[in-house]
Design brief:
The chain is mainly beta and 328 residues long. It contains 1 helix and 21 strands. The protein has 3 domains: 121 residues, Immunoglobulins (Immunoglobulin-like, Sandwich), CATH 2.60.40; 96 residues, Immunoglobulin-like (Sandwich), CATH 2.60.40.10; 86 residues, Immunoglobulin-like, CATH 2.60.40. A 4-stranded antiparallel beta sheet has the order 1-2-6-5, with no helix packed on it. Strands 4-3-7-8 form a 4-stranded antiparallel beta sheet, with no helix packed on it. Strands 18-17-20-21 form a 4-stranded antiparallel beta sheet, with no helix packed on it. The N and C termini lie far apart (100 Å). A hairpin with a 2-residue loop joins strand 5 and strand 6.
């Protein structure tokens, strides 16, 4: 096969987004070579940048980075999509300049594939990042608050409206390209609903001075972690009744229909409404309980039952209506 046919196909869907004086590039790993056959040997990607403009403002493309296809040290990769940050040789890119990028894939035999389609992006000052991002987790939700920026990255006071985009991930420093919020957030508070309990979520927020895509965002705020948890107790057990048997007092109650109920705790007291002591160490599944107790005639005991759910917090309901048992 000719070397040019063994070369990898161009990376697909290259995109470039500016945040302050950095440009964030993402692209898909090619799966075929130029002959259309499956690509088996991919060594690296080579990233090129040029400055767009006429005369002295324009520059020819130069290679700015090499990214290993496997376990890259200078980029992130998730499910075949790569992410590289151009920081302009560590000093940031020049404001009010337009830059163009393309990427080539390279095989292990040094077969250099054709360039991806070129993308352009303009770099200009953005708001400074929001600060003091905080998260308060609840039952299936997280409330996030932050402090707004007052200045732009060029040190000037912000005079136009500032909006916010919130990003969520399930591992540290790993966030998708799409914000959680369907529309820009105008306030400095957001409630993220519909989350799974007992799952760790990570968040950053970015400020933007644009109300619609393409976003012109700040860098990331501080990152926070939140773990929603079930804090809602089950309903109280109902229709508690009793029967005095030869071996003690037998209690009965209706099953709680909540599918998350793990069992029941049974309580006893010698006084109505106070002084209840739990009789079982762990929740029992059955809706009947035998208290092996025998007291002289005329003695009185009070009983109540609670329901407990299966969450790690073992949320417990309030007590059922008590029953009064007087021994004959």
């Amino acid at each position: 096969m000719a070397p040019e046919l063994r070369a990898p196909a161009p990376p697909d869907d290259l995109s470039a987004v500016s945040r302050d004086n950095r440009v964030y590039l993402t692209w898909w790993r090619p799966t075929k070579n130029m002959s259309g056959k499956p690509l088996r040997d991919l060594m690296e990607f080579r990233i090129y940048r040029r400055q767009v403009g006429e005369g002295e403002k324009g520059t020819p493309p130069v290679q700015i980075a090499r990214v290993r296809a496997t376990l890259p040290e200078n980029a992130q990769v998730s499910d075949g999509r790569y992410r590289y940050v151009d920081e302009g040789e560590g000093e940031g890119l020049a404001y009010e300049r337009e830059y163009a990028y393309f990427v080539r894939a390279v095989g292990f035999g040094e077969e250099i594939g054709p360039p991806s389609p070129e993308v352009t992006v303009r770099v200009r000052p953005a708001p400074l990042p929001p600060t003091d991002l905080r998260a308060e987790a609840g039952d299936g939700y997280v409330i996030l608050t932050w402090t707004p920026p007052r200045l732009g990255s060029d040190g000037r006071e912000l005079t136009s409206p500032v909006y916010y985009n919130l990003y969520r991930g399930t591992s540290p420093s790993s966030f998708g390209d799409r914000p959680v919020n369907p529309e820009p957030i105008a306030e400095t508070r957001y409630t993220d609903l519909g989350l799974h309990n007992e799952v760790a979520y990570y968040y950053v927020v970015r400020a933007t001075d644009t109300a619609s895509p393409p976003w012109h965002e700040s860098r990331d705020s501080n990152e926070v972690r939140a773990v929603p948890s079930d804090s809602t107790p089950p309903a109280r057990p109902r229709h508690l009744t009793f029967a005095i048997a030869a071996e003690g007092v037998r209690l009965y109650w209706d099953p709680n229909p909540d599918p998350e109920v793990a069992g029941y705790f049974i309580y006893r007291s010698t006084h109505s409404g106070v002084g209840y002591r739990r009789l079982n160490a762990s929740p029992q599944v059955q809706t009947t309980f035998l208290d092996l107790v025998s007291l002289p005639s005329g003695s009185v005991l009070y009983y109540a039952v609670s329901a407990v759910d299966s969450s790690p917090a073992q949320n417990e309901s309030g007590l059922s209506e008590e029953v009064r048992v007087e021994f004959p």
